[in-house]
Amino acid sequence: MTEKEQKRRENDRRANRVILWRTLLLMAVFGVAVFFPLLWKLWTIQIVNHDFYEGKAVGQATRNYTVSADKGGIYDANGNPLAMSATVENVILSPRDIVELQEEYAEKVAKAKEGKGEYPDYHEPSNEWIASNLSAILDISEEKVLEHLSYTSKQYREVKTKIEKDVADQVRQFIDENHIGKGLYLLPDTKRYYPKSSLASHIIGFVNNDNVGAYGIEAMYNDQLSGEAGYMLTGKNGKGTEMLTRYENYIKARNGYDLHLTVDASIQAMLEAKLVEGIEKYDVRYGGFAIAMDPKTGAILGMASYPDYDLNDPRAIADAAVAEKLAQMETTATSEEYLAAKQQAQWDQWRSKALNDTYEPGSTFKAMVVAAALEEGVVNANSTFTCNGSYTVADATIKCHAWKTGGHGTQTLAEAVENSCNPAFIQIGMKLGAETFYDYLEAYGILESTGIDVPGEGTSQVWPRKDFTGMYGITSLATASFGQRFNVTPIQLITGISAVINGGHLLEPYVVESIVDSEGEDVYRHQVTEVRQVISESTSEHVRTILEGVVDGGTGKNAYEAGYRIGGKTGTSETLETGRNIVSFVGFAPANDPKVVVLLAYDGPEKANGEYTADGVYVSGGNMAAPEAGALIADILDYMGIAKQYTPEELSGADTTVPWVTGHYMDYAQSVLKQNNLTYRVVGEGDIITGQIPAGGATIPGGSQVLLYMGEEQVPTEQVEVPDLEGMSPEDAKAALNDLGLYLRATGAVEYYVSTNVGTNQSIKAGTMVDLGTVVEVRFVDESIKEYTGLE
Ligand SMILES: [Zn+2]
């Protein structure tokens, strides 16, 4: 190796170190743990293997072009692109070659003056000429271009990166017209696009300027997505002219692999919409999270966190209120304060509350406790528990939310779960005992990470075993029995709940279903990974039935949806440091054979009046998360095409299709309407039905009344105004609509405690003019559900 060569390599290495440290600095901002594998890769490519790559060079004076590999795409479960790369170009100046071009031009002019040749037929490639043209084409300053040109010993100065084809074509034209291809050229590069903008932003993550994954699975799967760059090495003669034919050496690029996720863009969009809906409705201050999982495989169907951000512009603050606050700071605060605040806001929107953060699970955890107690045989379906409104453990008095009314009295096991009764659960926890209870914390995976293939999983905060089982651990056991005073990640909670309902199998959650090469061949395909069996199939089945009871008439009744057999558990917990509540619901359906499990939570609903919102809704998981999650689960099951299962009582109110009876005799109409679970009312006189409301083919709730027009009587064509149904009971709403010739489809907690339930949402706004026979859907919610969260 010559001295010159050695010096050049040292320079290259130094340059690579600068890039590495710059990347390191950037990564320190993101959290080093997440990026360690990435860092390692960078280190090996840029420093350790540098000589290997360099060693491929042939001859002394070589020019080394990188041939970038096409980066793989990220697709959802149905093949919809979530991340893709498009080819763009980088504009490179070689100031050293520009100097040579200028010298050649001057030589030609000098010779022409002596009559020894022609004057050049193109413009002099002066620095000013190049700067003014590039400035105009690339929309950069002339000074910047002149600065690049001043590095006359350099061959590689990036003037502008990632330009689109139309701009690149203008640069190409300038190069051709001015014969400066030696000193100004374009190199292909790629740019990452996220066609669905903010959708699943916390899962997908984004890449940095060099197309290296910086966050989310873009970072975790960077190696697989990136492929391997190729190299083109060309020999050069003394003047720097390329000698392609002699020394060309080409190492072909290997294109990156495509990732196919378990995430379904439609389900993800449903989760995100429900998050935003509840956040607006309940004036939620700190966002929320929602996860949908296939309980039989651990596949994540969707995982949403709010606030979120636009993957195409991850550094822009997506939350309008936060962005406005920052804009004000920009003029009022010091630049250090402003930058710190902006960085914090970026962190906040990049964090996945579903994965990176922990929270107190509250009463949702009771599902795991009751399953453990049944599995250990310390309780059974016939066990009873007495609640007087509070329970004293050591010197702490723990209240039940029914304490004002003297408690829940004597309850069966199922009733204790339906009531979410804290004293009953303390008794269940005591029966399990601290050691066994702790064994189950471990078995459910509460003390370890789930192993999900998205980076940055948070760490639970749980008492060490010796403190929990020691002589002072009794209060910890009591509070843990109803899910308080310890923190888990949402992904841990839903994974544990999946084990409770799927037959007892703790599975490793995952988002990457397969990795596919550019020929379409599988490089990797996920195998369902069982960590351990926690409870038996029969215990799991028993708990599913109990949890269906919670939604059928217990504290989860606002999640009720006729025909969907939803089971679940509400949760209301307090963050000790801030005193704010997290309201949540974990639910699954169908209860007999779960196809989906959903965890939905809102962090910090605004309390305007003590424990109530400004609208008078008691702040609890049962009142806030349950209705949203119930509707969400129903939407997901509809989307998955899972048939509804009605109980006999539900069947009487289930939707039915109105048959065509116009043109028929009354006998026929009577019989087919009855078959379709519909009643009728006759308008006018005659033998034959001349019209009907609603028309045949319409879908209306079973038991509804069809209007039959006879003889001369015509079907009225005028429209009617939809009444305001808010605050009405289901019976009143039905009567109000039927009087006008409209129909009610009642959803939500409509079957139970009917008199207290009120309409909260109607599908068609009051005041809208609609045709007779139109169905108005109204959601009924019991807003009185309370859960007591804390210790006295
Ligand atoms: Zn109670």
Describe this structure in words.
The chain has 792 residues and is of the alpha+beta class. The protein is built from 26 helices and 32 strands. A hairpin with a 2-residue loop joins strand 13 and strand 14 (396-399). The radius of gyration is 34 Å and the shape is globular. Mean pLDDT is 86; it is low at 29-62, 243-248 and 752-756. The structure holds zinc ion (ZN).
Please write out the topology.
Elements: H1 3-30, H2 32-48, H3 50-55, E1 62-67, E2 74-75, E3 81-93, H4 95-113, H5 127-138, H6 142-150, E4 157-163, H7 165-178, E5 184-193, H8 201-204, H9 216-220, H10 222-226, E6 230-236, E7 242-243, H11 244-247, E8 249-251, E9 258-261, H12 265-281, E10 288-293, E11 300-306, H13 320-332, H14 335-350, H15 366-376, E12 384-387, E13 390-393, E14 396-399, E15 409-412, H16 413-419, H17 422-432, H18 434-443, H19 465-469, H20 474-481, H21 490-501, E16 505-507, E17 512-516, E18 522-525, E19 530-533, H22 537-553, E20 567-574, E21 581-589, E22 596-603, H23 621-640, H24 648-653, E23 655-657, H25 666-675, E24 679-683, E25 689-693, E26 699-701, E27 705-710, E28 720-721, H26 730-739, E29 743-748, E30 758-762, E31 769-770, E32 775-781
Parallel strand pairs: 2-9, 24-27, 29-32
Antiparallel strand pairs: 1-6, 2-3, 3-4, 3-5, 6-7, 6-8, 9-17, 10-11, 10-22, 12-15, 13-14, 16-19, 17-18, 20-21, 21-22, 23-26, 25-27, 28-31, 30-32
Zinc ion is lined by residues 387, 400, 402, 407-408, 419, 421, 423.
